[in-house]
User: Which sequence fits this backbone?
């Protein structure tokens, strides 16, 4: 009996010693392995800052990526499903299926939803700008169509979509011009912008309404966006915030450019959201072109390091400006497939996100969740 007790004590001691060793080992191991042992996702590290979101397609929420999404993200944006050409293909026909699927998934799992986008110069249905006789629609008729569209879509997702990109990309690419010469502009003048906000506010007075654009950190574009925002705010248009699309690259924006943009736009009393974040490994380009002979498309260690540094810097700024920033959304889930794989160079692979082609956190991810990093 005595011997038995001794043996069991010995076993217990060994067990205790082993556990102590394991504990010490875990405590001394690197940040990365500590963090990777937990069930925490990106959204958890930022829960005291702002919701972290991601743009998705219906297939992302109805298959193998469900648990990945739920682990890392607190908010969803339908990447394409709510764009006018998709959701409103004919004047009297709406295509709710895909948007409904994404919104239902979000509601079921307690995620926020950003609606994208109510009024844009691209991806519009062909009927939108045509009159019944085949010519160009009148201003009065186009605004009526815009109102019907906004009332119907916003009303359907009332209480489920908390924020809308109301007007997307109204500023011209040419730095010497102000508003883009889109069909919206040609037919309605600037009025379509304030009207879109008014209709959205009438349809859902609770929703947060955003103007959304790209290259908002480049000084010349920032000034023109600021001019538009100021006009809207001064005129009492119901706008709550501005979306910085943040289709950035390892080369821009600089920290100073980003801070100036946040400060300048916030000075108008507007919230800031980062709405379409990705970090291309190539310089920014817009015009479609063929891949050049010898143009490499691999994530070399040098490019990866630049991306790590750039992600680390911008997230540090986001944290500093947490009072102004009310959301940060990534544009796509992982490097397995992103819109930048083909844009603007068909067949050129890009690696712009925090998760690799196997959905594993990249080195940049560990920097982004390491708040002690300078
Ligand atoms: C713009 C739009 C988005 C999307 C991207 C490319 O940023 O706002 O909806 O089309 O281009 O995916």
Assistant:
């Amino acid at each position: 009996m005595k011997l038995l007790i001794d043996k069991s004590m010995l076993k217990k001691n060994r067990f205790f010693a082993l556990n102590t060793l394991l504990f010490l080992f875990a405590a001394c191991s690197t940040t990365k392995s500590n963090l990777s042992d937990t069930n925490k996702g990106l959204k958890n590290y930022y829960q005291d800052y702002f919701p972290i979101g991601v743009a998705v397609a219906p297939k992302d929420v109805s298959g193998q990526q469900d648990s990945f999404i739920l682990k890392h993200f607190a908010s969803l944006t339908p990447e394409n499903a709510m764009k006018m050409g998709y959701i409103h293909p004919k004047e009297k026909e709406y295509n709710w299926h895909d948007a409904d699927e994404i919104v239902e998934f979000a509601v079921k799992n307690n995620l926020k939803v950003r609606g994208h986008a109510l009024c844009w110069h691209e991806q519009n249905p062909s009927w939108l700008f045509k009159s019944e006789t085949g010519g160009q629609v009148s201003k009065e008729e186009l605004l009526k169509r815009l109102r019907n569209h906004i009332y119907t879509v916003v009303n359907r997702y009332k209480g489920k979509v908390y924020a809308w990109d109301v007007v997307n990309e109204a500023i011209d690419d040419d730095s010497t011009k102000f508003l883009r010469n889109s069909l919206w502009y040609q037919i309605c003048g600037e009025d379509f912008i304030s009207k879109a906000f008014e209709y959205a506010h009438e349809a859902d007075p609770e929703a947060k309404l955003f103007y959304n654009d790209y290259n908002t950190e480049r000084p010349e574009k920032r000034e023109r966006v600021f001019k538009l925002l100021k006009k809207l705010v001064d005129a009492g248009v119901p706008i709550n915030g501005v979306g910085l699309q943040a289709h950035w690259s390892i080369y821009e924006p600089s920290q100073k450019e980003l801070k100036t943009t946040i400060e300048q736009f916030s000075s108008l009393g507007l919230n800031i959201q980062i709405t379409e974040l990705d970090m291309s490994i190539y310089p920014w380009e817009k015009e479609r072109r063929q891949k050049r002979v010898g143009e490499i498309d691999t994530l070399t260690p040098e490019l990866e390091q630049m991306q790590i540094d750039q992600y680390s810097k911008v997230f540090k700024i986001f944290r500093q400006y947490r009072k102004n920033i009310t959301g940060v959304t990534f544009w796509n889930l992982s490097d397995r497939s992103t819109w930048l794989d083909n844009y603007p160079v068909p067949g050129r692979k890009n690696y712009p996100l925090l998760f690799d082609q196997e959905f594993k956190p990249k080195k940049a991810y560990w920097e982004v969740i390491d708040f002690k990093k300078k």
In short: The chain has one domain: 51-283+309-334+348-369. The pocket of alpha-D-galactopyranose is lined by residues 116, 168, 214, 245, 276, 339 (CB under 6 Å). Residues 1-12, 20-31 have pLDDT under 50 and may be disordered.
